[in-house]
Every structure is written in C-alpha cells, then in structure tokens.
Amino acid sequence: MDDDEYSPSNSVTSVNSLASLLKEKLQSIPQKIRKKPTDYKLRAFVGLMFLAIVFFVGFAYVLYHQQALTKAYFQNIQFNEPKRLIRVFNKDDVEILKASLAVGIQGKQKAFPCLPEHRRSDGSECLEWLHNLRFYLKCLPHDPGVDNTTCYSVHWKALKPDVTPNDCFDWSDTKVHWFGAGQSINLTWPLNTGTIDYTPFITGDMQKSQWGNVLTRYLINSKGAAIIIDEETPLHISVNKGRKEICLKAQFDDFAFANRLTEFPEMKYNICTSRDMKSLHTSIHSHRRAPLWDGLKPADMKTLESLISEPVWQIAPRFRHELQDETISKYTEDVINLGFLKQGHVLINEFWQDEIGDLTVDASRFATLNVTVDKLHRRGFKVAFTIQPFISTESKNFAETVQKRLLVSERNSDRRIPALTRFKTSASAGVLDITNERSVPWILNKLQAVIDEYHIDSFYFDLGTAYDMPHYYRCEKQLINPDHYKTVFTRTFEKTLNIIGVSSAVSLPRPPTFVSLPPFESTWEALRRVIPTMLTYGVNGFPFTMPGAVGGDIYWPGSEQFLPSSKGAVESNSNTTQDNGIALPERELYMRWLQMATFLPVMKFTHLPSKYNDERVLEMAKNLTLLRQKLVTPLLLKYKREALEEGLPLVRPLWLVADGDAPLLVQDEFAIGDEIVVAPVLRQGETTREVYLPAGLWQDGIDGSLRKGNRWMHEYKVPTERVAYFLRKPDDLRFK
C-alpha cells in the first residue's frame, strides 16, 4: 500500500480481514484432525488392555502348566513331579502335610512311568527317576465305617549303591508341630523345637546326641497327619538341620544297619490322615482288634495293679560290696518304719551276682538270702532281680558259653570267636545270642534255679541300648538292626517269666511289663526332662511307663567316672548329706521331684524321705502318699482299662484333653486321663508358675476354689511343700 493510500480505517479493515481469513482456514481443517487428542487416549487404553490380556494369558499358561505337572492321586494327594513336591490334604481341603521327596537327587530330573515288569498289580502308582530311584504310591484299603483314618503307602527303591532315599517334611509352611519318634539331648516336646543331625534311629545315650532308650518309628503332627516307618528301613532322622523340616533317610552303615536286607537301600513308610490329631492317634494305637488284656492271666493283672498302687523300692548301691543281706533287710525296715508307704516291689540291681552273667547269687555276700527273701515276703514285699543278656569275661559262665557257642560272634570272623563289648561295671563282656535255640533253655535253667532256691517273684530286664551291642556283632539268625535284639529277647521270655520292666524298647512289651524312662541324674535340668520324655513315650504307644527314682538315679549314662575303680573308692564331697555313702539329692529338688512323681504311673524310690531328718519333708511325703492313695491311684487303675483296650497312655499330653493351639507347646504339665491336670514346679527357688487349664470347670487342688478353663493363669502361687493340680468338675457345679 502506498503512503498516500494508508489510513487508520484501512488498517482496521486489514486486521479484520486477516481474522476472518484465519477463522475461515480453521473451519476448513478436517474433522478427524481436530479430534486427534481424544484418539490418543483411546489408543493408550487399548494398549494397556492388550498388555493386561497378554499378562493374564501368560499367567494362566504358567498356572495351567504347573497344574498339568501336578497330578492328583487318591483325591487327597497332589504330587508335582519336576519339583518332587507332595502335598496331602484332609477332607476339608486343608493342607496337613508337605514334603520334598528324593532330596538327594541333583537337579530336576524327569520322572517316567515304570516299565511293565516293575509295576505292581495292587493299584500302586509307579514312577522312576532313571538309574536313581523307583517310587511307589498306594492308597491302603480301610473301612470308613470303623474310623475316618486313611493311609497311603510310600515305597522308595534305590537303583544303585550311591543313592539314598531321602524325604523331608516341612513344618513351617504348613504351620504344624510334630510329636513322637523319641527323645534326645536337643530334642524335647514338640520335636520341631529342637535339632539333631542325621543319626541312625536306634536306641542310645541322649547325652551323646543319640536317640534315647525307647523309640518308635511313628511321628504325628498337630493337623492330623502321621508317618509310620517300616521297621526294615535303615532309618536315619534329622530335625531342623538347615531348614525347618524333619527328614527321613534310608542308608546302610557298618553297625546300625550293617545287615543289609536288600541290595540297595529301600525306604517304606505310611502316611495316615484323619479328621484331627486326637482321633488319628487313637486310631493308630487302638488295640481293639487285639486288646492288650487278651491272654493276660489273673496273676499278670494283679502285678500290673500292684505296680500302679504300690511303690518300687530300688536298691542300687554304686559298689558291689555294699549290697548284702543286711543292706536289703535294713532298707525294708526303714520303709516299714516310715509307717505310711506301702510295701511294693523291692528291685535289686545286678550286684546280686558276683559278676554280670553269673546268674547265680553271690554266696559270699548273701549267705542267708533265702531267709531274707522269706522275711520280705512276710513283711508284704515282693522281690525282683535285675538281669542282663551280657556275660562278663570275668564271669564263671563265660568259658561255658564260649565253648557251647551261645554268644554273639564277630562278623567276618570265626563263629567260635565271641564279639565283646563294654557294659556298665564290666569292662569286657559277651552277649548271649538269643537267636540261638540252645541259649534260651540255658538261661531259663539258670533263672529257674534262682527262683526255686530263693523264691524270687519277678525280674527286671536291663537290656542296655543298641550301642551296647558289639560293633561287629553277628547272631545265628540275622537281625534287622541292633534294637531287634531286645525285642526278640523280651518276647522270648515274656510268657515264661514274670517281668515287671524293661530298660529299653522299640516295640510294646506284653503287660504287666512296664517300659522304663532313661536314668536321670539328680539335677533340676534332668527333672525338667522327665515330663517331656514320659509324654513322648506315651504318644509312641507305650501306655505303661516307669519313671526313675525320686530325686534322680544313682547310676545314669555318664556316671561311669563315679563307678568303682581298682581301688574301690571314689572321692565324695564331705559337705553333702550322705545315704550309705551316696550323696542325697538337694532337698528342694527332692521335694519337687516327689510332688511330680505322686501323679506318675509308678513311684520309684531309692532315697527315702526320712533320710533328710527334716519334718517338713516327712510331713509333705505323708500328705502326698495320702493324696496318691485316695485320688491318683483309683484314677490310674480306671484308665488302665483304656490303656489295655485302646492304647491310650495313663499320663497324657494336654492336646489329648483340649483343643486348640495352646496345649501343643505345653511341656511341663500333664493329665491323668481327662480328669486331672498336674502342673508341678520344676525350677529351683520358684514358688509361682504359668498354668494352662483346658476348657471346662476345674477345682484347684491347693485351695479348693473353682477355676475357669481354656486360659492361662499367670503367676500362679505354688508353695514349696505343695503341688499344683486341678480336678475336672461338672460345668453346672458353679451354680451350686
């Protein structure tokens, strides 16, 4: 525009024209371009949906793949083959057992169906990990009308010598507690609270990190699953070594499982399930089809009742020369002079012989033993001798047994050479070969001669543990393991001799034979082990158990340092109270031990309460004796019937009486049947304790007050001369 043509009006017109032009251009933009921002949001949404679909499809694929690899067997078992992980569920689809199988196999080796020639016609599932292991799984037949217990059989066969079947049962993910098997120094109640490395499952000395004197191949958990291992399995067990699990392993060795029954190790066990822990335990240990009373004579039943209702007086001096006619006579006179304790059984240790294995009375120390025994009978006592299957090399019978080849021989050597071992005071001894048919009449003739001459009432079998057998033992008939010896020995004589107890067992002896707890030294720590040990033995299927002496045993594993030396003397503390040269248990310890023992199936004494010359101890003993006679003994005799019929122990854990999780961890209380709960004080200097009472109404045994159950009582007061116990009462009693 020229200068002469420029004017303000022309400028405004130009701006308006430009605005109109822009508006026109904007209106001409395609509709799809103007909606582009909205299109981006849609595309983003579609992209996210696509990714989500891909994720869920992938997740579903993985889940399906895992489920495809996890097979269901017999409705309640799931098995993931690549991971070798087995899960067992109850009828409510609650996982009650989880195990990693064949943990010794490296990597995720694939399992294949067994070849036709390896399959079984009994309905077993069969899998094989090539050149390593073969696996059989079977549901055992059962009658649902009888009980709700279902069992599954597991059988592993190693296919080469360097493979050991090894299954581990997790207890952390399934949140269960395990009971049974046995006890050891670091294992108590429940099992999963302790630790033990892979150890041969044979009887031994708990103080040496071995298993204890009484074992059963049976474990049960708190959700109603149990494991029962076959006796022919060369079993090693570990607990909590590295992981929270209990592991079973089948492995041969040169002692415990040297007698190889199969070419390569095999492991067989059953997994049993039921609706709950109590019903499962009752079902497994029930003796209804073959009750324990079947075949018992009136004399057997009388012996059983007398062991419950009368004390056992254990005369067990540490030195042989201290046991004489006068020793026995004086001890029983002291019992009678107490005036409130019944007579019962007088149990005399192996020192009635000159040497272990003589099987004849030492005439130099017992010139008038027949007169002494007759006197004891007239006083109301019964007399029992302790015998062992060991023959000392110093015994007068050793040469005869070697000549007649009656002893266990040395493996891989001449059968005429006996295998020797060490047992208690005997530094060298042979072992009578009970599988030899000539040995049985030989020992029976010896024992019958003792019975005929001295009128002995019964015997106590001190069988030692598996580790007391010679290391390279060999019997005429092959044994499964060293513990098999004690089973054969006990069963050989249980119908021909009156046996009141055995020191060790892996199978249930015929009543009236009681199974003993291991000997415990006189300490507070040992006192605290009595209840868990007794509960474990009861759960393992031994209803009739005999605890050690009140206050602790004179001889216990590890006390060899105090046994007679060549000089025949040991050092003693002149400041301690002595009973025939033996230090008495500490006073408070003895009192608390006696309180607990009042409620146990058998009361065994070595030290009499009168030896303390303390009126408080004597008065407490009188009161406890009265309590046992009026209350405890009738209940023990009542539940003896259930023990003979159903296999339930006389002394029971609280989880057999109460439901819930709280009773599972209680290891310092016990119940007699379901009518008395006992909570003794087990720690030095304490006069209060925590007490758990099961659901129901309970009467306090100390002050007679009524107590509501299903709760903990904190700081419950228990004076030194009293014991805490509670009697179950009818629920409507609180309104009267």
TrEMBL record:
The keyword Zinc does not apply. Gene3D superfamilies: Glycosidases (3.20.20.80), Golgi alpha-mannosidase II (2.60.40.1180). GO terms for biological process: carbohydrate metabolic process. The chain crosses the membrane at residues 42-64. InterPro entries: Alpha-glycosidase_related, GH, Glyco_hydro_31_C, Glyco_hydro_31_TIM, Glyco_hydro_b. GO terms for molecular function: hydrolase activity, hydrolyzing O-glycosyl compounds. Belongs to the glycosyl hydrolase 31 family. This is Myogenesis-regulating glycosidase isoform X4.
